[in-house]
Automatic annotation (TrEMBL):
The lineage of its organism: Bacteria, Pseudomonadati, Pseudomonadota, Alphaproteobacteria, Rhodobacterales. This is Putative gamma-glutamylcyclotransferase. The keyword Transferase applies. It comes from Sulfitobacter donghicola DSW-25 = KCTC 12864 = JCM 14565. It comes from the Bacteria. A motif (Nudix box) lies at residues 254-276. Mg(2+) binds at A253, E269, E273, E322. CDD domains: GGCT_like, NUDIX_ADPRase. GO terms for molecular function: hydrolase activity, acting on acid anhydrides, in phosphorus-containing anhydrides; metal ion binding; transferase activity.
Length: 364
């Protein structure tokens, strides 16, 4: 088989196949009359027939029927299927291609750049995809892939996180990990042991955690008019808890998309949810929403902006079925809500007290 795109990345290919490669199974190769282009819809390429083209890749031999089944499962979710081709050296091979109109192609594929920017995330995503092999159809996995990729990007961001708390550096041994549920979110169950403060080892512990992507939260603040903007929408947590107030007031918030920084996501979410263009961001805090049970990690900001009367209204992305009402609240009323515990969303309360501490500086 000839691989010209992401599967040229050996760590990713080994994840898909579920095994390591032996010496000599991979050699460099070229496919004439084809050009490899980057796809605008995602960080992966598409192969396009072109008379003067020459696609670089690797040739892999010795693949078993199980290997082919795993490759079909992974590639098929992106609508890539096998065709026969003849390589530059005369070798007859098979290669995965998609219909010419399936994806929007852009510039020529830069494999080295992809490895640097997307290789780690793609390996995390491929690991989750292949965990479903034999359990879910490739079409079911393809439908979940935006969430899979977001969770993978969160793991990339997690690898860059070090709060500097000067805490115990005890080792944790994962004995087994099971994906108990996968949908819009996911739940993992783990068996583990960890080092204790007294130098011993804990017994085997059975634990579980909720898997979610990183999120950016931003409180828009107008220092001239001295008021904030909060959004109001139906939330699943209060619904599941039986809260009498299912619609909640909270900051503008959203998942950090793959490739985004938390700051980029904050600017984007402000535009999408409230049509606001933020002037600048002030970092409030960053940390786990509830570290005992969830991977959810918040990046919280106050966004300096202009908040005229007409900015309030109903918005949100139709494609995500959002129904969001924005509300303008004076700083004094906002703090009064905080003082009487009327801000049921704890990040909002944290932002309120941060703003109270920094308000004079921002207004000056």
């Amino acid at each position: 088989m000839f691989f010209y795109g992401t599967l040229r990345h050996v760590p990713l290919l080994e994840i898909v196949l579920g095994r390591r490669f032996s010496e000599g199974q991979l050699v460099a190769g070229f496919l004439p009359e084809f050009t490899c282009f980057a796809v605008q819809e995602g960080p992966f390429p598409s192969l396009v027939a072109s008379a003067q083209g020459r696609a670089e890749g690797v040739v892999v031999s010795g693949l078993s029927d199980d290997d082919i089944a795993r490759l079909d499962y992974y590639e098929g979710g992106f609508d890539y299927d096998l065709i026969d081709v003849t390589l530059e050296d005369g070798t007859v091979a098979q290669v995965y291609v998609c219909a010419p109109d399936r994806w929007t192609t852009g510039a020529k594929w830069d494999f080295t750049g992809w490895c640097s920017d997307w290789g780690e995330m793609s390996c995390f995503a491929a690991t989750e995809v292949m965990e479903h092999f034999g359990h879910r159809t490739r079409d079911e996995v393809a439908a979940m892939f935006p969430q899979i990729r977001a969770r993978a990007w969160s793991k990339v961001l997690g690898g860059r996180t070090a709060a500097g708390q000067d805490v115990f550096d005890g080792q944790v041994e994962i004995l087994e990990k099971r994906r108990a549920y996968t949908g819009f979110f996911a739940v993992d169950e783990v068996s583990l042991r960890h080092e204790r403060f007294d130098g011993g080892k804990s017994p085997v512990l059975e634990r579980s955690y909720f898997v979610a992507g990183d999120a950016s939260l931003v409180l828009p603040y107008d220092p001239v008019r001295d008021r904030v903007l909060l959004v109001e929408q139906m939330r699943m947590g209060p619904l599941g808890r039986g809260d009498t107030e299912i619609w909640q007031l909270e900051p503008v918030a959203g998942r950090i998309d793959p490739g985004e920084t938390p700051e980029m996501a904050a600017f984007r979410e402000a535009r999408e949810e409230t049509s606001l263009t933020l002037t600048s961001l002030e970092t409030v805090a960053k940390g786990y929403a509830t570290p005992g049970e969830s991977t959810c990690y918040f990046h919280m900001f106050v966004g300096v902006t202009d908040l005229p009367d007409e900015i309030a209204g109903v918005g949100g992305l139709e494609t995500e079925h959002e129904n969001i009402r924005s509300r303008l609240i004076s700083f004094n009323d906002f703090m009064a809500m905080a003082e009487r515990q009327a801000l049921a969303n704890t990040p909002t309360a944290l932002m309120a007290y941060w703003l109270a501490h920094h308000r004079s500086r921002l207004r000056s």
